[in-house]
Amino acid sequence: MAEHGHDSDVDAQHHCTHSHNHVSPNPHGSPQIHEGQHGFKEFNKNYFDEHGHRYNDHPDAHELARRLGVAMINAYTFNEDSTLVLDYACGTGLISRNLAAHAKCIVGADISQVMVDQYNQSVFNQGIPPEEMRAVCCDLTVAGPNQLDGMKFDVVVCASAYHHIPSIEDVTKALASYLKPGGSLLVTDIMKPSSAESAQALLPTEEAHINIIAHTGGFEEAVIKAVFEGAGLINFSFVTACKAKRNGHPVQFFLASGTKEVTEEA
Ligand SMILES: C[S@@+](CC[C@H](N)C(=O)[O-])C[C@H]1O[C@@H](n2cnc3c(N)ncnc32)[C@H](O)[C@@H]1O
User: Fold this and answer.
1) C-beta of 214 in contact with ligand 1 (< 6 A)
2) Closest Cα to atom 4, ligand 1: which residue?
3) Quick one: CA dihedral 121, 127, 128, 129, positive or negative?
């Protein structure tokens, strides 16, 4: 298995970073949503409810999650005795699994009940008690800040999901609201490729993915920086987390991080 820092390209095909017939490729990398935006949530929920049971069958999904997990561990000082983690759009728990040994407790959240059920089944199969790791089915952008039993987290992670979510502004604000003062938000997704050829690789390949991708073509640093700052996060950083291949072309995953300011009242 490839070592961190010398990774061969993992295939990110399973991440279905396609465009579809309601969203045009965005040459500037900025959020660009068309009339179908209100349907994205339902389409994603239905898609992952229908196909989620096969998500863990992709060997590259596990390897990508491992590499993204390593990047997160490098970006934040986890403490296995104290760190509380929220894994948003947690899917089947591939990212949580890579963080588990470094955290006291991980709560996953996702809009697909099928993904959440797989997450919890896998936790159960590993003999991990739900107090240490569990997932719930919910949309934190709708539910308000007091979902999750009023819990606040040291670190909130969100991997490979921003391209599915129409308003990355709203989700970033919602995720920031679950941070303790001084806590960090870590977001990873595909970076906008610099070559036209690689950008082409993000175009649709499967009809089945129609309507589930709100953002095509990867994200630019400036766009992610603006939404982090809009959510009141400071100390923004944006690094390459790992390389991947998409339709045979190289793409990169970024890891963005920002910190919730410690105010006098906190
Ligand atoms: C490509 S999977 C990534 C799963 C996991 N983060 C990982 O890296 O293995 C995308 C996940 O985002 C979830 N998702 C899509 N739209 C969402 C939304 N609006 N709110 C929360 N989760 C969403 C899907 O249900 C799916 O589990």
Assistant:
1) no
2) 91
3) positive
% of the chain beyond a pLDDT of 90: 68
pLDDT at 118: 98
* Residue 5: predicted pLDDT: 33
The answer to whether the CB of 213 is under 6 A from ligand 1 is no
Report the predicted TM-score, pTM, of the whole model to 2 decimal places: 0.89
* CA 266 to ligand 1 center in whole angstroms: 31
CA distance 215 to 32: 7
- At 197-223, the pLDDT tens digits run 788 778 767 665 668 888 888 999 999
Residue 10 Cβ contacting ligand 1 at under 6 Å? no
Pocket test for ligand 1, best of 10, 17, 44, 66 (most atoms within 8 A of CB): 44
Give me the domains of the chain, ranges plus CATH numbers: 10-23+32-260 (3.40.50.150)
If one residue of 72, 86, 111, 178 were mutated to test the ligand 1 pocket, choosing by the most ligand atoms within 8 A of its CB, it would be 111
Q: Distance from the CA of 178 to the center of ligand 1, in angstroms?
A: 18
Instruction: Please state, in angstroms and rounded to a whole number, the distance separating the CA atoms of residues 238 and 183.
Output: 17
**Ligand 1 within 6 A of 7 CB?**
no
